[in-house]
Amino acid sequence: MNSNAGKYSQLIKSKAIKFGFQDCGISKADFLEEDAHHLETWLKNNFHGEMKYMENYFDKRLDPRLLVEGSRSVISLSYNYFPKEKIPTLENFKISKYAYAEDYHEVIKEILREMVAELQDEIGDFGFRVFVDSAPVLERSWARKSGIGWVGKNANLITKQSGSFYFLAEIICDLELIPDHETTDHCGTCTKCMDACPTEAIISDKIIDGSKCISYATIELKNEIPEYFRNKMEDWMFGCDICQDVCPWNRFSSPNLQSRFTPNEALKNFKKGEWKELTQELFSEIFRKSPVKRTKFAGLKRNIEFLERFSGK
């Protein structure tokens, strides 16, 4: 082990806190052996629905050394997005909390690059790549291995201190660092997330049929929403937070301190009638910097029209 491994590991963790990350853990860049079988089975069962990109780069998903040449460590980080205020849902369609504000991909990548630049000033040059819900990286697996949290029954990463309303990010680098240990699972016998899911997308502990998930139907799905979702959408027009909202650990969630994650004012004032009149121009104006732009105007319009026809009440 490099004599600087411990010093660098502590430096990275202190920088992570300085740059606003909620937590930081380290894993050795290695083959994710226990995840290989789970991923293969999940794909064979077609639980990914139309997310065909999940079939790509199978080996790279499981081994970061194939993704980033010379990599020796995976630094996992979490960033709180729990909002200061919730967007009213009375007479309004619902949007996942992570999409209330600016696109997290851009916000967190900028922070990561600044953090790495500062690290290189102190450590010296090192090879790295940063990832924020991008490229074939099994984020929750690495975060679990690094001890940030455990994977809950709803397949979200959960922590005792702050629940699950946070983004995950990674720095895969060629630094030799001290790996952390996994934490223990604290879901116990609780099945609140499984019981609350209106589409029964949570098949069993940690196994999600993505093709039945409301988030999948409103974001990933490019075709028409299947009849299966009729009267089950509960007014969600982009994403879904049900399994997180009912999780007992999320009672510990506290508002984020990132100004760029302040809820979009336009979203707070909209009512269902106004969403039904949404135009391409207005969509582009409201969601210019938002993750909602991923579904495009046609996708959001499709979601709204589906909810209009089937109220979910």
TrEMBL record:
PROSITE patterns, A to Z: 4FE4S_FER_1, 4FE4S_FER_2
GO molecular function, one term: cobalamin binding
Principal subcellular localisation of the protein: cytoplasm
Annotated residues for binding of [4Fe-4S] cluster 2: 197, 213, 240, 243
GO biological process, one term: tRNA queuosine(34) biosynthetic process
Matches recorded under Pfam families: Fer4_16, QueG_DUF1730
Keyword terms, alphabetized: 4Fe-4S, Cobalamin, Cobalt, Cytoplasm, Iron, Iron-sulfur, Metal-binding, Oxidoreductase, Queuosine biosynthesis, tRNA processing
UniProt binding sites for cob(II)alamin: 61, 133, 154, 157, 168, 215, 240-241
GO cellular component, one term: cytoplasm
Domain 4Fe-4S ferredoxin-type: 177-207
Catalytic residues, chain numbering: 133
Domain of life from the UniProt record: Bacteria
Keyword set includes tRNA processing: yes
Residues bound to [4Fe-4S] cluster 1: 187, 190, 193, 247
Catalyzed reaction equations: epoxyqueuosine(34) in tRNA + AH2 = queuosine(34) in tRNA + A + H2O
SUPFAM superfamilies (UniProt xref): 4Fe-4S ferredoxins
EC code(s) of this entry: 1.17.99.6
Binding-site positions, tRNA: 222
Pathway: tRNA modification; tRNA-queuosine biosynthesis
Alphabetized PANTHER family for the sequence: EPOXYQUEUOSINE REDUCTASE
Purpose: Catalyzes the conversion of epoxyqueuosine (oQ) to queuosine (Q), which is a hypermodified base found in the wobble positions of tRNA(Asp), tRNA(Asn), tRNA(His) and tRNA(Tyr).
Family according to the record: Belongs to the QueG family.
Quaternary structure, from the entry: Monomer.
Protein name per its UniProtKB record: Epoxyqueuosine reductase
Organism: Chryseobacterium defluvii
